Structures are given as C-alpha cells and as structure tokens.
Amino acid sequence: MGKVLVIGAGGVGSVAVHKMAMNKDIFTDITLASRRLIKCDEIAAAVKDRFGVIIKTAQVDAMDVAATVALIKQTGAELLVNLALPYQDLALMDACLEAGINYMDTANYEPPEKAEFEYSWQWAYQERFKKAGLTAILGSGFDPGVTSIFATWLRKHKFDTIRQIDILDCNGGDNGKAFATNFNPEINIREVTAPVRHWENGQWVTSEAMTTKVAFDFPHVGEKNMYLMYHEELESITTHFPEVECARFWMTFGDAYINHVTVLQNVGMTGIAPVMHDGVEIIPLQFLKALLPDPSELGELTKGKTCIGDIATGAKDGVEKTYYIYNICNHEECYAEVGSQAVAYTTGVPAMIGASQILKGNWAEAGVWNTEQLDPDDFMDMLNAHGLPWQVHELDGPVDF
Ligand code: NDP
Predict the structure, then answer these.
(1) What is the pLDDT of residues 258-312, one digit of tens each?
(2) Can you tell me which atom of ligand 1 is nearest the CA of 186?
C-alpha cells in the first residue's frame, strides 16, 4: 500500500518496524534510519530472523533537514514516521514539507534547553501542511495517542458530551533494576520532574511534581500509587473537546523510583542547563542518561503487565454515565513477539497503526492533527487485531479522587 521511512532506532522504533514488517500488505517498503547505522542494522537483522522480511537501513542526522530530504527522495517514501526524540520534530516536519510527504510522530516538540511541553510549535505548521496538501499526525503512541483515541471513541459511541477525563497510566512491570526508566531516560525524567498542571473548571491548576498521590486498584495489576502529572494530551484534548471541565493525567511509580528521582533532583543530576566539569561543558541529565540502563535492552528482564486507559464521565440522552476503557499488556508476551518490553510495545504498535491510517487514506485531510480529532473506528479495530486489545466497562459513577 505504501513506502515508509521510520526515523529513530530505539525501543519504540524497533517495535514499530517489527509490526510494520508483520503487515507487509500495508507497508510495502520499509526503511529504518537513525543517528547510528549499527542500531538500524541490528533491528533489521532481528526483523529478518523473526519474520523473514527485509527492511532497508540508513544513517541520518534528523536535525539536518537537507540530509533527511535527500534520504526521503532516495527511498521514495510517502510517509515519515518520527520515532527519534521530541527535539527532532520540527526539523523532520520541515523535511517532510520540503520533500512533499506526510508526517507522523509520538511525542510533542520540546526545545532541548527548556522542558516545556506544549503544542504551539507544531500547531504553527497547520497552514503550511494545509497549503502543501499534506497530513501531519501528532502523538500516535499510547499516551499521547491511544488515550486520546479512547476519548474520541467514547465521545462518538457512548456519550453526547464528556465533562471529565482521567488518564491512568500504570506500569505494573518489574525489571529487577534498582532504577531504570521505561523509555528514553532523558525524556522520561524531564517529563516526571516538570511542574504538574491539570485542567479544572476551564483553567490550568498547577502543583509541584510528584506530590499528589492516590492509590488505585488497577484491573489485572492490583493496587498501585499513581501520581498527578502534566502530559501533553491534556492540552490537545481540552482544546479540541472544549466541553471538558476536568482533565487529569496519572502515572504509577513505585517508592524506589520516586526516591531515586528525588535524590537525583536534589543533587542537581536532573538539570538540563550546562555545567563545567574538568574544563568540559556537560548537561547533568544527559550524563545521567549515559549511566542508566537502556530501556530498549530491558525486554528480557521485565515481568508483569501494564494497564493504560481513560475513565471518562459524560452525558448520554441527558443521563450521566462513567466508563473505564483500557488495555492490558503483558511484558513477557511482548518480548516473545518482538523482543521488547511493554512500554516500547504499547508505543510502537499505535505508531504502526497510526501510520496505517495515513497509508490507507483514513486520516487523509491536509493539515496538522492530534489523534482525538480523527475518526477512531478503524484504529480501534486494529488495536484489537495487532496486539493491544481493549475493553470498556461502565462504572457506578464518576471517580472521586
Ligand atoms: P530511544 O532513545 O530508545 O530512541 C530514540 C532513537 O532516536 C535512538 O535510536 C537515537 O539514536 C535516535 N536519534 C536521536 N537523535 C537523533 C538524530 N538527531 N538523528 C537521528 N536519530 C536520532 O527512545 P524511545 O524509543 O524510548 O522513544 C522514542 C520516542 O517515542 C521519543 O520521542 C519518546 O518521547 C516517544 N515516546 C512516546 C510515548 C507515547 O506513548 N506517546 C511513550 C514512550 C516514548 P541513538 O541510538 O544514536 O541514541
């Protein structure tokens, strides 16, 4: 059906190209490019071993727009899937505009020197993509991605309006490490240590990171502490669903994780401003990343399940209803299928499905779109068919945490 160029050979990129290779009818030609060719070649060899499918590989610096444009032209790709880091989003959107192809990513742009999470930089591309007749899909991972599509599906099939959305992200897995992050450590720690914002009565309420804690009994996982956090889909959901009065994002962390992050923050190791060390300028958080386990290598060690979903309250025919919609994903089953843990899997599979929506022509309107703005139905069917089955249950009433 179409040629795709995937940028970024990390944990998420590996899962996405494995799943694309399992869907050769949609992804007829796959190229994986990243900063280091060796990482692409290792993934290509694993894909060939598992499924007998050949994917092409290339080296590229995604910050170099001219080099990416040349690679797009060489591959003949009609879609670029950005699974590198948020810092590369704008350069890759520029490259897609210049080469005349569609764009998709899983995380919103962040300037390296400021841990700010907002869509303004990418939404500013709206007119340019519209004028070029090209589509850019922002945030087609799990959160953001599936969590927004869950909200859209509920709004389409279960509600007339939604007034409250809580997104609950639980990783009940254990990798045996004293401290490790589920995905890129630099991006993960920037996110977790950022000031918290949630939407209440039509405005942002701010609080300190890792301070609001609630115990919740997750299906198939059990009781875990979850912490209020800011997450980028809160901005896009409250923008695109203006009737929402309250929107919050919660993520589970064990005590050991919270203690490690608190100590690292207290001693300055999570800082993103450069410091001088022995005459060399270093960024503490990037140095810390070099010491921490690489999440793409934790697959074999990780046991347990994730449970990610939305609890939404709204009205149908004048009657208030509350639904919990979620996916359960098993780390060991993901490893058996594609050699990765569930956090990379729950991001890489929706990346493959979002890319399919573009190549199938389901998400074809020119412009820049967040996933809650798009039709959810085929995406939701594909989740069930490609490893992330979901379930929806009506609850007795709204959550009171
Ligand atoms: P990794 O760090 O494992 O992978 C990132 C890859 O991008 C690496 O291979 C890296 O190269 C490559 N890369 C970095 N900079 C460049 C560059 N300038 N040019 C080319 N390649 C580059 O990260 P993850 O796989 O864990 O995460 C990937 C993305 O997915 C991130 O943006 C993350 O925020 C997002 N994400 C989204 C989630 C969601 O649910 N929406 C959940 C989890 C992650 P090298 O190997 O040389 O470092």
Answers:
(1) 999 999 999 999 999 999 999 999 999 999 999 999 988 898 999 999 999 999 9
(2) 2
The closest-lying atom of ligand 1 relative to the alpha carbon of residue 12 is: 25
Q: What is the pLDDT of residue 400?
A: 85
Task: Determine what percent of the chain is predicted with pLDDT higher than 90.
Answer: 95
Q: Which amino acid is at 397?
A: G
Ligand 1 center to 9 CA (angstroms): 7
User: For residue 208, what are the contacts with CB-CB under 8 A and spacing of at least 6?
Assistant: 195, 196
Domains plus CATH for the chain? 2-138 (3.40.50.720), 146-339+389-395 (3.30.360.10)
Return the pLDDT at 76.
98
* C-alpha 12 – ligand 1 centre gap (Å): 7
Map 353-389 to HEC letters: HHHHHHHHCCCCCCEEEEHHHCCCHHHHHHHHHCCCC
Chain position carrying tokens 């869907």: 23
The confidence score (pLDDT) of residue 277 equals: 94
Cβ neighbours of 132 (radius 10 Å): 18
First to last CA, the chain: 46
DSSP for 96-120, please give it.
Answer: HHHHT-EEEESS----TTS----SH
Mean pLDDT over each residue of the chain, to the nearest integer: 96
Q: Could you say which residues of the chain have pLDDT below 50?
A: none
What integer pLDDT is reported at residue 26 of this predicted model? Answer: 98
Residues with CB under 6 A from ligand 1: 7-13, 34-36, 39, 60-63, 83-86, 88, 106-107, 139, 141-145, 183-184, 187, 295-296, 347
Residue 384 in tokens? 């069930």
Is 333 strand, coil or helix?
Answer: helix
pLDDT of residue 112: 87
Q: Which residue puts its alpha carbon closest to atom 14 of ligand 1?
A: 84
Distances (CA, A) of 29 to 36, 142, 310, 348: 21, 25, 35, 18
Alpha-carbon distance of 254 to 138, in angstroms, equals 30
